User: Which sequence fits this backbone?
């Protein structure tokens, strides 16, 4: 998994991606892997990154995490 410490300090995009990475850590693993797959497609093909799709996956993962958390019984 990408960690905040792994990002270069001199890259202007880092400031944009840090909140994304922090949020990504809180979503189900399958959504994390789908986002990473999208990133790797870009890295391997040299095509433009579909940032909208990556954010859609993140938001869907957050929604799923909320639904899952809401369905768990509360501890006494």
Assistant:
């Amino acid at each position: 998994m990408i960690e905040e410490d792994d990002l270069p300090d001199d890259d202007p995009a880092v400031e944009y991606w840090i909140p994304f990475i922090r949020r990504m850590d809180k979503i189900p693993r399958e959504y994390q892997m789908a986002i990473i797959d999208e990133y790797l497609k870009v890295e391997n093909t040299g095509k433009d990154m579909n940032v909208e799709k990556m954010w859609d996956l993140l938001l869907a993962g957050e929604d799923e995490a909320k639904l899952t958390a809401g369905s768990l019984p509360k501890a006494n």
In short: The chain has a mean pLDDT of 80. The CA atoms of residues 64 and 70 lie 10 Å apart. The two ends are 34 Å apart (CA to CA). DSSP finds three helices and no strands in the chain.
